[in-house]
Amino acid sequence: MNINKFILLGITMLLITSCQKDVVIKAKDTIDITNWQLDVTESHFSFVTIKNKNHAEENTIDFAQGSIDELGNLSLSLDLASVDTIIERRNERLRDILFEVEQYPEATIKTTLTRDLPLNSPVEVEFELSLHGVTKKMKALVMIQKAGQQLVVINYEPVLVNGKDFNLDAAINQLTQIAGLQSINYEVLTDFKLTFGK
After folding, report:
1. pLDDT, tens digit, for every residue of 112-164?
2. Residue 65 pairs with which residues in a beta bridge?
3. All domains of the chain in start order, with CATH
4. What is the enclosing helix (H) or strand (E) of 165?
5. Is the pLDDT score of 23 beyond 60?
6. Comparing C-alpha atoms, which of 59, 60, 62, 63 is closest to residue 75?
7. Could you tell me which of 92, 97, 103, 161 has the fewest CB atoms within 10 Å of its CB?
């Protein structure tokens, strides 16, 4: 082997070694979907109503229960009777006129999570919202995080819910008249934090 071939072989081996060092495959952080239970005391759901076109008010509803089973099926229930607007009379109107809690005591959310969903990155999730006797497919941009022994899911962007889609527009019109307002928007922006534990 002459000197030129030896040098060429050395350069080739050096390039191969360098490329091997640069190619590092990192395992993605993915979700453990096995048997989680919602911690209702550490979870939160709120929605913002707009009155007279520019007056915003934040309201809350408590979670009744929630879980993720061994197949990744996520199920949540909201206790509509727990709606809190800070003003009790208004709470009663929402319970009785808007949500009609005697007939429809809960709203439910269902979706399926897969193991390849990334942690700590925004991801779009399709889900079904059942409210006031109507079920509608929707989408939400969420962030999934591990915090110690907890799994936390938060909305990355507010989720828009239109009352017309759930036959709530007549009740909203009635509430507008009762309160002596010019308008109450049919659409609300919702935010949530879901905290799951084993």
Report:
1. 999 889 999 999 999 999 999 999 999 999 999 998 899 999 999 999 999 99
2. 77
3. 29-197 (2.40.128.110)
4. none
5. no
6. 63
7. 103
